[in-house]
Amino acid sequence: MKISIQVMASVMLAISVSPCYSDELTDIEQATSAQEKAVVGALASKTNDNANSASKPSVHCEIDSENCYNVERITVTGARPVPLSVTAEGAYVLDQDLLRQYSFGNGNLNDVLAVLPGVQFSESAYSATQVSNIRPAEVSIAGTQGYQTAYQVDGVVNNSKLSTGNAQIDRNLVQDVSGHSQQSFINVKLLEDVTVYDSNIPARYGDFSGGLVLANTRNAEKHPHFGMSLRGTGDNLIRYHRFYSNDFDGTSTLDEATFSKLDFSTYLSLPITDKLGMVAQFQQLESKESYDQLGSLREKVQTNTNAMVKFDYALTDKDDIQLRLLYAPYSGDYFDELTLNSDYTIDGGGTSALLAWDARRDWGSVDTQLSWNQSENSKTAPNLWFSWKNVPGKAWGDYNDSISSPEGGYGDIEKVQNDIRFRQDFTSTRFSWLDVDNYVSTGYAITHQNVVFDRLEDAILYNGSVLNANVNCGSYILDCVNTTFHRPISAIEAELGRPLNLLDPDDFLLYQENILTSGQYFQTRQISPKSRSEASVVSASAYYEHTLEWPTFDITAGVRYDYNDFFANHDLAPRIRAQYTLWEKYQVILGANRYYQGSVLNYKLNSAITPFISQVRNTFQNVPGQWQSAVVPSGPRYVYNDLATPYGDEITLGYRQPLLGGLLELRYVDRTNKDSINREKGYGEQGEPILFAQNNGESEYQRYSITWMANFAQHHVELNISHASNTTSRRNFDGDTVKGSVGNQSLNYTYDDSELIYLRTDTYNESGVLVTKLNLITRHDLSLEQQDTNRPIIANVSWGMDWRNWEFSAHARYMGSQEAIYPTSDRKTFSDATQVCSGCTSTQREYQVYRLAKRPQFWLVNANLRYHWNLAKNHEIILSAEVLNLFNSRTHQVAPFTTGLELGRQVWFGINYDY
Predict the structure, then answer these.
(1) Residue 840 contacts residue 616 (beta carbons within 8 Å)
(2) pLDDT at 68
């Protein structure tokens, strides 16, 4: 018998049974997505009562063969499923067609998730620097930060324990490496489908407190398939918006970057034998952009590569073996635009290997996987950083009217993560028990994770220089500058015929103009010593879920168990979801679930990292002395003792019904996160500073969303709007960093200098007068204050169509207004009244200023147009044009009343060949 299942150009499914068939032939073509497989299976097994149309002509076999039978010809036509789940799970499935149609720009996995309800992006996704950036913006699902969402590729965990998305504001970090929540940046060209969960997540999945993203790579096809594509954009295809502050003097204008970005990919799908198939894919995205560094135009280069080889082998009719190798490195060459001698390189990404066995039996199926991942997050940079006073000799701070002139970098760091994981999942077929249909799923997983933090050299941070015109640096040539002159003072006095009188304005001006370098030296510094730290965690999990199905009601109840040998907690997470059918296709969805956070390895690594060392020195007769330990000689270390595992409790309520040829869903999600880990400042028995981890943090997320999705003959439409609120308890914050009264303030703890920033807030008093406040806070608190992914209202409108050889799709996204934090180029001095050493002056340190301001609402519209040019049989060329920010709208990334560039319209062109 030969059965063919075909996805037609009209986006309809058709199933046909040939009138003649042989006993020896069985051929079921593969559906194009996971959801289509389910629908096709259902259509094939049900009677034609579920079809929109069916015909049963009497057909007689004309072949005279004992293996040829007369059978009916049945044609079943049904609409392609929409991304909305038709079960109680809070899932959305994006098949290969949708991934292609809504992939804009870089083509990252994260970018295509924008069409779904409740998904929010970090604000860096819309910044002008994103035009050259090739790393995906962090995504928030269910109100959490990016690293709290779980990512899996073919069942292999893709979350990085080396980073918590720590570079959303700054790429260049002192005590860490700029990273991302994902180990590898997967391009959608490699993917068959993506399933996104935001609520009612099955017990099979754990180690997250946000959402879940499951990506499946493409499988081998029955016939040889080959293709390659080239896409690109450049500075001549970009528009910018320029904004200037009220005090802008007009002496210079904002320059637009000169850049190019190219995306090349190729793939090969090949049946090697009748049982063995192979897929090989390669994709590389490269970006080059020029930046102005203190008046000089220089280039930053970034490269992201995806290379995959995948083998599928049909061991038996019921057993499939899969081997997949993925190599996905990332690299970037950067520099700080306002910092001299600041070149640094970041290397990330990783490699993974997967061996999987899918066994199907009469009683059910077994999915067995053994996987290995290795990823890195490393940087190479100068190991000395100076915050010089902006005075003659160190005056490059004049370029942006800064009080300081920063120089250097933060040293070389290598971070490596290795994971080995074995898991098995068992799913039963339907069986009857107590006159009810039953399904059971259960499984377990064992994981070993290891991370290494290796600082390859001492990194020294100098902050708070002291001006001294008479300083005698002697042998200290790195951290001290002598006063020098264009002409000797004696020569000027000889011309005047008298000594200079610095109390005389004219003589003082003459003296100032003669200064070549002003004397200054540093009296405090922090050393991050060369060191290597390592942490390993073994974790185990198991789950059980049981589904009961009645004609109008089904319920799934389960529990998930998790254990790791760091926290040593035995965590049980109940998962319950139910669906009640009021009448045909009118359904109510309920759910109550608990999710335990899984990022414990990062905590263990923090506790192993060597703290920084604080040193001070004084001067004697204007000669700097030797460096010596400060009163509190080292920075804080982390202590994690007797902690509970952070978790989130979720309540879900939904309603689903047909509407206007599509599917309407109303959903409410309430996620209360408890036992979140916060930091409490303290000291050890020897007086050393310690940050004690506690379980005092809490937060709550609520979301109301309305979604309507429909597929028609040649069109699909998706509409959704979400209202979300995300509140964080003040107990999550570090709190005040300063003690004492104005004019006599000091730090209340031994902080890493790189950990502190100023946050500026502007308010109006009752008289309408602007009141500006500057508070010194930690970067940890800054990340909580910014609520980067917490826009109250998000709406999406998506539309796609096929017409003859043309393919068009568009996505409009509305972002409501919110309080946002803007980085600035300003720095502010903090005068620390603490006596750091005998004979030392009051320490003055400079910290960067960030600004809290209202970010207005805005719309963004992206569009994608493709033309399919059929050259010959099985040969096709596809021409594409993508337009991001079609209407050149503002994104409000520049703070009010400040100077800056905003990214406007961006155009990509591409060409693709398929065989």
Answers:
(1) yes
(2) 45
Region of 59 (left: φ > 0; alpha: ψ -120 to 50; beta: rest) is beta
**Smallest Cα–Cα separation from 339: which of 297, 392, 258, 399?**
399
Can you tell me the distance from the alpha carbon of 89 to that of 217, in angstroms, rounded to the nearest whole number?
22
- Residue 126 has what pLDDT? 73
Instruction: Count CB neighbours of 595 within 10 A.
Output: 28
Tally of CA atoms within 13 A in the half-sphere of 803 that contains its CB: 6
User: What is d(CA 560, CA 570) in angstroms, rounded to the nearest whole number?
Assistant: 10
Q: How far apart are CA 199 and CA 559, in angstroms?
A: 15
Predicted TM-score of the model (pTM): 0.84
- Over residues 537-547, the pLDDT tens digits come to 999 999 999 99
- Whether residue 339 contacts residue 397, with contact meaning beta carbons closer than 8 Å, is answered with no
Domain boundaries, the chain: 3-79, 90-460+529-914
Using the Cα atoms of residue 653, residue 83, residue 799 and residue 891 in order, give the sign of their dihedral: positive
- Residue 256's pLDDT band (cuts 50, 70, 90): low
| Whether 360 contacts 388, CB under 8 Å | no
Average pLDDT, the chain: 84
Q: Which CATH number fits domain 90-460+529-914: 1.20.1640.10, 2.40.170.20, 2.60.120.260, 3.90.770.10?
A: 2.40.170.20
CB-side exposure of 646: number of CA atoms within 13 Å?
26
What is the Cα–Cα distance from 760 to 775, expressed in whole angstroms? 7
Of 71 and 753, the one with more pLDDT: 753
State both tokens at 27. Answer: 């051929």
Q: How far apart are CA 711 and CA 34, in angstroms?
A: 17
Contact 276, 312 (CB under 8 A): yes
Distance CA 118, CA 141 (A): 7
What is the Cβ-side half-sphere exposure of residue 847, based on CA atoms within 13 angstroms? Answer: 24
Q: Which helix (H) or strand (E) covers residue 745, if one does?
A: none
The conformation of residue 479, written as its DSSP 8-state character, comes to S
Task: Report which listed range, 102-111, 798-807, 819-828, is most confident.
Answer: 798-807
The DSSP bridge pattern shows strands 480-481 and 524-528 to be unpaired
Q: Please work out, in degrees rounded to the nearest 5, the angle formed at the alpha carbon of residue 611 by the alpha carbons of 609 and 617.
A: 155
